[in-house]
Amino acid sequence: GLKKKEVNVLCLGLDNSGKTTIINQLKPSNAQAQDIVPTIGFSIEKFKTSSLSFTVFDMSGQGRYRNLWEHYYKEGQAIIFVIDSSDKLRMVVAKEELDTLLNHPDIKHRRIPILFFANKMDLRDALSSVKVSQLLCLENIKDKPWHICASNAVQGEGLQEGVDWLQGTDL
Ligand code: GTP
Ligand code: MG
């Protein structure tokens, strides 16, 4: 059959935001992990859609590992940036990490698509995706295609919408 186009995706965001849970849900059910633990360093995962074959660099969001992220920016062709919508205290930290990412020389001048997941929408005190978008000042991103989806990674809700969007960008 036809070989699917291969795309390297960087999965970024603070620790506990749900990155590994999201990537796990996108894998075929027979490849899904039952227990998800905090990522140490990073983990390479793969999943396929109808037209693309994704290799995901699922990075740890813990402070001590965030300096690893930039070493993979050059290889990344798309970014999935995950936010815990209920973590109001650390929204400013998430914004700082996003701004650092956007200003990095390996990212700054590229039209790399960024898919944001406003994750944990099921939690009672979760902010809406519109509110998350405002707090992160996403409207200031003018030189890259971006999209934000509310998601519940535990139930797998909102993930397909995001992947469909990513697939529709000119990867
Ligand atoms: P690091 O690997 O440490 O950077 O964290 P991570 O971003 O990969 O987070 P992980 O996927 O390990 O999830 C952290 C915790 O949040 C786990 O207990 C998940 O079950 C939980 N979680 C993830 N997504 C959701 C969600 O949408 N809703 C709720 N309620 N919990 C979630
Ligand atoms: Mg993880």
TrEMBL record:
This is ADP-ribosylation factor-like protein 6. The gene is arl6. InterPro entries: Arl6, P-loop_NTPase, Small_GTP-bd, Small_GTPase_ARF, Small_GTPase_ARF/SAR. GO terms for biological process: cell projection organization. It is found in: Cell projection, Cilium membrane; Cytoplasm, Cytoskeleton, Cilium axoneme; Cytoplasm, Cytoskeleton, Cilium basal body. Keywords: Cell membrane, Cell projection, Cilium biogenesis/degradation, Cytoplasm, Cytoskeleton, GTP-binding, Lipoprotein, Magnesium, Membrane, Metal-binding, Myristate, Nucleotide-binding. It comes from Ictalurus punctatus. GO terms for cellular component: axoneme; ciliary membrane. The keyword Transport does not apply. It holds the Pfam family Arf. Mg(2+) binds at residues 20, 39. It comes from the Eukaryota. GTP binds at residues 13-20, 61, 119-122. It is a peripheral membrane protein. GO terms for molecular function: GTP binding; GTPase activity; metal ion binding. Belongs to the small GTPase superfamily. Arf family.
